Input
Amino acid sequence: MPIRKHHDADHCPEQDPSTASLTDRRSLLRGAAGLSAMALGSGLIGTESAQAAGSATTSFAIAVLPDTQFYSRYATTDEGQQFQNRYGSTPYAAQTGWIAQKAPAYNIPFVIHLGDVVDQQNKPTQWAVADAAMQQLENARVPYSMLAGNHDVINDYDYHQPADQGSGTDAQRNLAAEPYLKWFSPNRAARQTTFRERDSSGFHEFHIFQAHGVSFMVLSLSWRISDAGIAWARGVIARNPTVPVILANHQLLNIGDDGISARETDYGLMLWNKLIRDNDQIFMTLNGHHHGAAYLRKYNDFGNEVHQMVVDYQMDYQGGNAMMRLYEVDFTNNKIDVMSFSPWVVQKPKATLNAFDFAELTQPNQRFSFPVNFKKRFAGFLRFKPTLSTTGAPILPRVRSELLAGYTEPTPVVAKPPVDSNDFPLVADTYAHWRAPAGIAEGQVVRIGEALPDVFGGNDLRRAALVGNAQLGDVVWTADKHRLSSAAGSVRFLNTDKTANRLNAFLTAMGASVNGRSFWNGYTVEAFVKIPADWDASKHRWGNLLGRQGNRGNVPGGYWGGDPEASSVLFAISSLREVQWEVVPASNSHYAQTNWSGEIIRNTWYHVAVVNDPATATTTLYIEGAPVLRNVANAATGLRAQATPQPWILGAGWWDGSLDDGYYGWLGELRLVGKPLPASQWLTARRR
Amino acid sequence: MHLRFTKAALVAAITTFSFTLAHAEQFQAGADIFNGSGYGASYVGAGGNTPLSNQALGQVVDGGNNAFDAFGFYNRGVGSLSQARQVELLSGNVYRFFDTFTNTGTTQVTTTLNFFGNLGSDGDELVSRHGGGLTVSCTDDGAGSCTGQPVLALVSGNNGLGQATLTPDRYNVSFSLSLAPGQSLSLLNFAFLASDVDGPTAADQLLAERTGLALLAAPRLEGLSTQQVASVANFTISPVPEPGTWALTLGGLLALGLLKRREQRVR
Output
């Protein structure tokens, strides 16, 4: 196991748990100022830690469930029970089932849910999935806390400024209508042995559990808490003045663009100022909501550390792939160790595993340790005297060992890179295959009217005339491409900025045969895409890779859905960096159907394939060959063209007669095939 | 929670003082004043906290032998006042906190500032003196003697403006003020650390008390301008002592120790 050192201690926790040496207060605080505790030669604090007899470890583990919303949603019949169909099991139940079974052996006295229990609060079937999952804990008598996230409440209004406390909080809700309070009612919460109280709104609760003779409070605050709720929380702490507090929220910390640095949110700062900073008992905070994982050591008004952590896996493979956390609170060694793992991955059928499946995440922001001198940290309100274990052993190494026993990481399928520009499968029913031509020069500007050739059917795309504030130099050829693309390179869209009315596009010619295609036999649409490191949602959200001219409200058959001004094909990168595939089907054009990927990473090439198969009534989105969650169940067939054929658009979308939502980044090959294709015939495969 | 106030400890200190003074070598307090990015023997700059991690500028972290966890910053009441800090480790293991607050607004500001210290004793305080602007405390070994961390003499002023309290692990001094627009005033706090190089002895308790009393009577002002001294609100300051005054004070302490020693022998 490698030793990791973190010099930016404000953001990064300490070294690997197995090698963590004990550090004194001076080292810790200095570390927080930007110096490595290790580099300073940290002193042992053995006399202040809870020394157990011999080598026994006095510790316990808290289980944490980040946002379960997609587990709840895509296990429903409404969404085609996508987990069950593919794996024969579901992630949420796998999480709580594992905890229920393992809690005694791993000394897990409490479980914390971080909210966004469901994705759509108005769908009882999603609540039923969550209900059943949490019942496993209840049946095993493992206590847990719940809180409502923004997806769990009827009105999802964000907080930005103090005046926002006047709207969207628990105080402004019609409590009788809130499904969270029905499914996870105060009465249900009260059945937990650790439960103490909910506030008058019913959204916020607190528990007290004991571990090794020390009481801990979990103060679990739903999104978004009112001033009255905060006053209740302060009162709860005041009424329990000697109890250390773990504060659970849905939103508090955010994560920077690098994916690991902690950032503060307006809502989190409000909570800091109104609740956390002057309540010394709060020594740790946990939240979800923001995708990724980060840690922040912050200091309260008493100069004491408050360890803040955000974690949310929902945008990862399979909506998080059942990733959860254990926090081992180690009194003997004065530290807290963190493990991020999936109890579901290890029980999936081996044939379903792929490169996106991980039993444990081992990156520094997922597997880490941070020192807490418990006696010192709690000295202002508690005389810390745990009951020492005489037989205890470190928990996380045991979890790791037993989790991975008999589990083999999937062997990555090594795809062969192309040997030349023709090294891809030619398939019948290809309607268009656009790719950068041979002979392009790096950075060469694409002239107005210059072709992005269709190498199959002659439906070339040509760069459209400049509109708005677009400049000629905004589109260039580049040799940069996905490693499995056999094309000469890609086309890059620079300087796109929706706040400055700046976008560029390619269009097929009026009269091109592909313009009238309706894909009645299903389809396979493939693209190679990469968004830049400086991709910014404020400028680049909803940028379209591909679209079709014409309002979807005008397609034959009668479109009844929302946004009739939009295109009948939306192949875009969302504000959350998801791939969006939203199309009006040919067989039923009344409503669009949408697939979503998880979050894609900046500065990384991806192969995207969307396969619509009439035989199975499915539309499946694949990212780098892996089927993602959030697919369409009971999919209609194909894509519906306008009655009067209209050009295809590459690099921008369409809104009510105009180009809109420009794409920012690289676009490699893009191929339209009028039937479903297996992976062996995709552009990532090789010709035979 | 252990917070013990005792006179017995001081008596013991006086008894032991004569036997230890001759060979006691005082430890050196650390250059542990936080400046926003590192630590040094002084901090001159604005008050407040660092971005994101929220660490107080000018606080003393450790101070040597884990005397403090985080000592010497204002954690309440500053509000709209601007704050300038001059925090220094003076000779003789004395930390001086000189803070100037200015009302830069257009209306009167009435507030109670709180000077705060998080002590290294972690709730095991043994207090031998508390009141009149001086608190002397150390870490209790459970039997009424000092152990581990240095003995602290914490000085908050001699005119009653500063109201010091000591609760487990925490030292607070409140200053109730009212500043007119444009008005400034300064607050002066001291922390003296006494410890033998091998750890605190009973004699160090006496040394801490005597040094604290000396700071109350004649706060150390070297390096401060006449204007700065004139702005101090929590001390009634006698004419500035000559440079040799402190040497005389220490000499007096030595003499006192010898006298005590003789008294013990006579008894």
Summary: The helical segments of chain B are 8-20, 202-217, 226-230, 245-266. Chain B has four helices and 15 strands. The CA atoms of residues 30 and 64 of chain B lie 5 Å apart.
